[in-house]
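dumping the sequnces here before i forget
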Amino acid sequence: MTQPRTGRPPRADAVRNRLKVLEAAEAVFDARGTTASTEEVARAAGVGIGTVFRHFPTKETLLEAVYVSRLRKLAEEAGALASADDPGVAFFAFFTRVVGHAATKNALSAALTEAGVDVRDAAAETGQGLKQALATLLSRAQEAGAVRGDVGLPEVMTLLVGASQAAERADVEVRDRALNVVFDGLRAHR
Amino acid sequence: MTQPRTGRPPRADAVRNRLKVLEAAEAVFDARGTTASTEEVARAAGVGIGTVFRHFPTKETLLEAVYVSRLRKLAEEAGALASADDPGVAFFAFFTRVVGHAATKNALSAALTEAGVDVRDAAAETGQGLKQALATLLSRAQEAGAVRGDVGLPEVMTLLVGASQAAERADVEVRDRALNVVFDGLRAHR
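..and the predicted 3d for all of it:
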């Protein structure tokens, strides 16, 4: 329903509020899991519950927005790393970053799937960008001799999925040691 | 309820029938997924549906029995490999075997979780045996210099979980190439 507007259009305010809610939601879901309530998000954002619902009519739309925002940030980071000085460092840094984000990402994705939202659909476009950025990082690292030449993007994606899934169940030290094993395997044989 | 027995006790028959149903269930769930019906299992086993229900009163008890049987077989294989001539070959063969089984095992585990059965409970004992067998395989492979000495059982378990999860989504060639990356990482640095 359209509300009667008074004074100047609240466009900038609305955009600012949406972002505020989104950022609060990211922090709250990170810290307290995806079962955290919309009320908690409103409180963390310092807005009324009405403002949350105006931008995100359901918990699912909020979860989805957080999920897509996460993917977009990762894609942006990958894009930035694609022009880094050391392609090997850039590739492994990004791999580590994705795995570090995995626990939250998987929880969000599971919550969405449970709510009946098709995650692939919601995130397909952003995911595509991420995949392309990863392809660039990989081929640059291979050209620089930092990653062996005989692995392709599908293998790297598979390793990334596996590492992300496993990261959820392991403590940080174990995760990092397991990741180093994978990285040693990915390094070029000298 | 106890049925009146006539003639010799049907103990051996019952054991045989239970095994027949269990093996048929494994084959059917493998081929057609865990949504396959109990009727299909009965048909594959060549027994009446009543026989299936006598041994496995619900679909969940059947799924659970298949799951535990899978784990037990893997634990037996690990036990057998623990005295193999080449500890390196034995370790990597077992890792590959677990990952190869993963798709079915994960599907079974997911179906059970969805049905509200606590998989950890159901399989805890067998899982413990498997873990111990893996520890033996690992330390023998490390002593033989086939696996680097600086990885512990938690890392190997984490890599195994990751590889198993990833294997579900990748086609066989990609899975094998990704697995080889992990194996290269696990090999002793020479």
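Chain B has two domains: 11-57, 59-186.
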